[in-house]
Amino acid sequence: MKKLLALLAIAFLALAVTAQSGPMIQLDKLVHDYGTIAQGANGECTFTVTNSGDAPLIITNCKGSCGCTVPKCDTEPILPGQRSAITVRYDTKRTGAINKSVTISSNAVNEPEKVVRIKGMVEGPAGTPAGTTTPE
Hints:
Blueprint: H1 2-19, E1 25-27, E2 31-38, E3 44-51, E4 59-64, E5 69-73, E6 83-90, E7 96-106, E8 113-123
Parallel strand pairs: 2-8
Antiparallel strand pairs: 1-3, 3-6, 4-7, 5-6, 7-8
């Protein structure tokens, strides 16, 4: 009986260690809220990625849900405990509600694909209906 308990304890510890092994992605936020911003305002925001694992984290791709949402991510390996930034630029020439997503693909063992969102409202000049674009 003691041998069986010892084997079970060793198996449990091995599973616990294995479950935590490898690169792990952690973000400072899952949603960036611009609030209400003016048409043509700076539509850039940043998400901070931390590797909370024990192996290098490699971000292989960052993809916006449409052409108006352009993410930029560093593809250099993020060492354990280190951070990197993902910059997202939203085209604020368009007025109306912002509700877009960015999919981050990596070698993370906890979440190989992580989705973050941006939201808010772009206000046009007075009298301009939402969802229209004014000439530049």
